[in-house]
Amino acid sequence: MYKTLGEWRGERPSVYTFGDAAGVSRWIASVICVDGVWKWCRWKCPQLLWDQLQIRDNNQINVQELLSIVLTVFTFKEEIRGRLWHHWCDNDGITATMLQGSSCCGDLNQITGKIWLTVASLRAALHLERVESLANVADGPTRNSFWHLNKLRATEVQPIMPWWIKDVWQPITSMSSVVS
User: Fold this and answer.
1) Measured distance CA(166)–CA(157) in Å, rounded
2) Alpha carbon distance 104, 40 (integer Å)
């Protein structure tokens, strides 16, 4: 029998995260609340990664929003491990891509698949939701605004991105090659 989200809440501790990206500036941010403690990080998308992506005229915003989930799961891997992970994103396209497990774009498919493999390796249960941009606490750090994070007494942590960011088209040869 399938369990509802409410039933999972009673069996696993929850962790709450928000992700965002700014587009032109290439800043990607993640905010986490675990056991009442707030932390955050941000990462600037390098040219090396940009050069691998399919050509788009939207500052790669969908890719950047998806990378905010990568930033979240790799930076906060231990906080997410074994928990019910609630993640809020303000991009409908990326929320749909993650829920479907695929996109019509090859680069998004490569990244999405690697995210889901990582989530599975952490034995986490991921629940994705849409959040309005104005309510997204990860919006501030992508735009050099930290007042909300200061109010939450959030601690900045060092961002961690996986090795495969250097080559998103790298084929998956083993589970451990994706999640390390």
Assistant:
1) 22
2) 31
In one-letter notation, the amino acid at residue 62 is N
Q: How does DSSP assign 94-130, residue by residue?
A: HHHHHHHT--SSHHHHHHHHHHHHHHHHTT-EEEEEE
Contacts of 147 (CB under 8 A, 6+ apart): 140
> Which DSSP string corresponds to 21-58?
E-STT-EEEEEEEETTEEEEEEEEPPHHHHTTSPP-SS
Residue 8, classed as helix, strand or coil, is helix
Return the residue matching tokens 């995260």.
17
From 13, 59, 17, 70, select the one nearest 40 (Cα to Cα): 17
Q: CA torsion 43→101→110→141, rounded to 10°? A: -10
pLDDT digits (tens, 9 = 90+) for 125-137: 999 998 888 889 9
Q: What is the pLDDT of residues 135-174, one digit of tens each?
A: 899 999 999 999 999 999 999 999 999 988 888 778 777 6
